[in-house]
Write a structure and sequence with these properties.
This protein has 155 residues and is mostly helical. The protein has helices at 28-41, 46-65, 77-88, 90-100, 119-129. The protein is built from five helices and no strands.
Length: 155
């Protein structure tokens, strides 16, 4: 995806592993099905639908990895659309939870005031720190961090 901005890793992170795409963990037929659902339900072309879906998976996989840590993770409005697309495909979501969350359903409880408390951009940075590709433009609807925007990498 040529329009994807990848958040840089924090300076303290010594890892040199390549950034992972959520597409790597989703079977191709399931990916195509869920991209199609996004295109059906939203005014997205296949590129935008894939971007939103990929960030939804990256969010869920990060939240599963950090389950029980009370980090206050929160998706942006656009990423939340991808999250709900995954969750509403309940059989596939159950399989994701079985493979990445010890079979425990991760319950997504949206925060009422998630846009002004720093949690959305903190979440994007956590996803990047966990090695997932981050499309910052999909997280940018949270105008909460001042200088946090694509290209700004001082965090």
């Amino acid at each position: 995806m040529g329009t994807t901005a990848v958040a840089s890793r924090p300076a303290a992170d010594p890892t040199t592993a390549p950034v992972r795409s959520a597409r790597e963990v989703v079977p191709a037929d399931l990916w195509d099905k869920q991209v199609g659902l996004l295109m059906r339900d939203y005014p997205y072309d296949s590129v935008m639908a894939a971007r939103v879906l990929g960030q939804g998976y990256a969010y869920l996989l990060t939240a599963m990895k950090h389950r029980g840590e009370s980090l206050g993770l929160a998706p942006s409005k656009l990423v939340d659309i991808g999250v709900h697309t995954v969750i509403l495909d309940t059989v596939a979501y159950a399989e994701l939870c079985a493979g990445y969350n010890d079979g425990v359903f991760l319950h997504h409880v949206p925060k009422v005031d998630m846009k002004n408390d720093g949690s959305v951009m903190k979440t994007a940075h956590m996803i990047a720190a966990d090695g997932w590709e981050v499309d910052l433009s999909l997280w940018a609807d949270a105008a909460e961090c001042g200088p946090c925007h694509p290209g700004y990498d001082s965090h």
